[in-house]
Amino acid sequence: MQIDIQKLKSGNIRSLSKFITLIESKKAEHQKEAQSLLNEILPLTGKSIRIGISGTPGVGKSTFIESLGLHLINKGLKVAVLAIDPSSPLSGGSLLGDKTRMEKLAQEKNAFIRPTPSSGNLGGVALKTREVMLACEAAGYDVVLIETVGVGQSEYDVANIVDLFTVLLLPGGGDELQGIKKGIIELCDNIVINKADGDNKQKAHDTMVQYKSALGVIKTEQKIGANVMMASALENKGVTEYWELIEKIYQENQEKIQLKRKRQNQDWLKKLFNELLENKVRANPSLQSEWTKLNDNILNEVETPLSAANKLIHILFNN
Length: 319
Known about the structure:
Strand content: 5-15%
Radius of gyration: 22 Å
Distance between the termini: 30 Å
Largest sheet: 7 strands, parallel
């Protein structure tokens, strides 16, 4: 697959799209080519603000991101949106409807929206999202917004690839606390109570107070902020204030953010090693054959799992 790196560097959408398709390909030759090109563009990366945005279904993530994206473009910035769509566990198909949900943003020349299927990755963050983010940075995008599937394990995954992590919640703190993991408080840098309009205003205010109290008592090395605010993406209220807060946190915490990125890269190495190891296992016919036999041995209780695992390791590293 021919990728014009010079066109990519100049922000050519077609070249960027082709590069991302190459990155996401499962073919060995495409993966090798993608890694070579990623090494080539690496000096051009790392200059964008990386923001993760997650939240419960129906909270209005796409509407919020579209309002934010349009605001940033009006400020003269280029915005990339990587929207992770859930893949069907049966067909592998993905909804990929974000361009429809962000119709106005999709029409802007300085916006790039890339729906990416999670391909069954339970974390809700596609396996290649990090590399895609680097490609967008090399193409000159100032802000990369990553929208995750929903609430759960995805928070932990997205928080580990972005600079600042925002969670959108609906007004009504009691119900929200029942529906999300306690760890969310330790992960997020900002909480936005969305849909704070109409009859929801007072409820949104009460929810904001509740979460301000919760965030105020939790301090971890990973967190860079501890902010809670209200917004109405539908009415385009609170979006400007949200971005002003992001800019302030980003500018005042450069040292922490750079350290965070270094830690993320170390974790990335570990995950990629495990992914490549798993691919090597799947591509080894001798090991797959032995795996089936050993699995039967375990089911029939004639061999221990540890003994079987050691045999598989021996096959893997001696072929």
